[in-house]
Automatic annotation (TrEMBL):
NCBIfam families: MGSA, PRK05234.1
Gene3D superfamilies xrefs: Methylglyoxal synthase-like domain
MF annotations from Gene Ontology: methylglyoxal synthase activity
UniProt enzyme class: lyase
Family label: Belongs to the methylglyoxal synthase family.
EC number: 4.2.3.3
Catalytic residues identified in the record: D64 (proton donor/acceptor)
UniProt keyword list: Lyase
Protein name in the entry: Methylglyoxal synthase
Binding residue positions for substrate: H11, K15, T37, G38, T39, T40, S58, G59, H91
Length: 131
């Protein structure tokens, strides 16, 4: 059975929320191939070392663009991207480009934990249908 391919990214002020969210869903995330920017993936793996995460560069160094390339190539089924709306980001153009590609290719994109809960529930339902 194909595994879901899910991107995980969080801005610095949202990393604690990402770790908490990933831990809460770790059993379902273990059924996914996960892709993350550098620091986000490292933080999640500290708490959930069993997860299979391919880590790209840190966001400001091109990681957002690498995740965007996966979307453009049809290699990502969903994106959980906890955006910090209250801080400036030096790579804001990359953030915008990534969210734009998620819209262009119509992949589910969750930008906060409550939406990410719904996305995971959707994956669960799809797993059940496939089983
Ligand atoms: O900057 C980011 C998203 O725009 C995230 O990058 P890191 O996970 O490397 O902190």
């Amino acid at each position: 059975m194909a595994r879901f391919r899910l991107g995980l990214i969080a801005h610095d002020q949202k990393k604690a929320a990402m770790v908490e969210w990933a831990e809460r869903h770790r059993r379902k995330l273990a059924l996914c191939d996960l892709y993350s920017t550098g620091t986000t993936g490292a933080r999640v793996l500290e708490r959930c070392p069993e997860l299979r995460i391919t880590r790209f560069k840190s966001g400001p160094l091109g990681g957002d663009q690498q995740i965007g390339a996966l979307i453009a190539e049809g290699q990502l089924d969903g994106l959980v991207f906890f955006v910090d709306p209250l801080s400036p980001h030096p790579h804001d153009v990359d953030v915008k480009a990534l969210t734009r590609l998620a819209l262009v290719y119509d992949i589910p994109m969750a930008c906060n934990p409550s939406t990410a809960d719904l996305v995971v529930a959707g994956f669960e339902a799809a797993f059940r249908r496939r089983a």
